Amino acid sequence: MSEVENQIHDVIIVGSGPAGYTAAIYTARADLKPLVFAGSVTAGGELMNTTEVENFPGFPEGIQGPELMMNMQAQAERFGAQVQYEDVAELELTGDIKTVTLIGGLQYKAKSVILATGSAYRTLGVPGEQELTGHGVSSCATCDGFFFRDQDVVVVGGGDTAMEEAMFLTKFANKVYVVHRREELRASKIMAERAMANEKIEFLWNTAVKEIHQENDKVSGVTLSSTVGEADRKLDVTGVFVAIGFDPRTELFKDVVDLTADGNVAVLGRTSKTNIPGVFAAGDVLDPTYRQAISAAGSGCVAAIDVEHYLAEH
Q1: Which residues are CB-contacts of 110 (< 8 A; sequence separation ≥ 6)?
Q2: Annotation marks residue 301 as catalytic
Q3: Is 217 a residue of the active site?
Q4: Does residue 96 carry a catalytic annotation?
Q5: Active-site hit among 10, 96, 144, 236
Q6: To the nearest whole number, what is the mean pLDDT of the chain?
Q7: How far apart are CA 265 and CA 273, in angstroms?
């Protein structure tokens, strides 16, 4: 066994983003010398795909998503956190000592683990979507709605989240088109009624987005296809909000850590404690409701303090 594999860390953080980096800041300042596996591609989380962030406290002029994440990482490293751009292949979480195995086979051991793997928004998988993410394509109206004042936008989806996104966007947008594949919503009755009563919202039934168009690297419109055999048509909009759900990233531990009915990590009350002693969760992987950078950061703080208490008791 190598020296690296023989060392037992106080805490390993799997994942980065606001939750993972905040947990790293707090555990580093507690002299726990956290080891963070940020991911080779996903380091920084969803905010790496976000342009302007205007609702994170402390930045009155706003800040770019990648810059905010780099600042958080640098702050954690300043206090002694070690951040590695590595992907975790396997987790052994039971027992007093946890084992984290990386792709490639190298193993690390720790007394505690914080799961901050986040969640992934479901995508449409249509031409133009990936290229224009952060440039008119968004999965968060709360984050980006302000930038679409007096513009026409599309919300894709038929559930409660889609209705919430659409109604929030009416505060800024001139017109909100809700594109839904069926002729009735999946949303709860009260949410559907509220959305239908809003004069700024127009429903496009039995319709799907086929392609997202761009002009000068920004969304300029969408091609809509019919699910009932009608002809395609073009709709001029400057924003596309995808609200067809998200999936917590729990693949590494879903058979060991208890999950909720929604598939999120289940924790005890307002803590970050999972059903396994020494294993904690933070951020969007446990949060099906708020999913904001600031709430994820707060969750990372909770996890770090819970880890401190756990290690002190053990």
Answers
A1: 8, 9, 10, 11, 12, 35, 97, 98, 100
A2: no
A3: no
A4: no
A5: 144
A6: 94
A7: 10
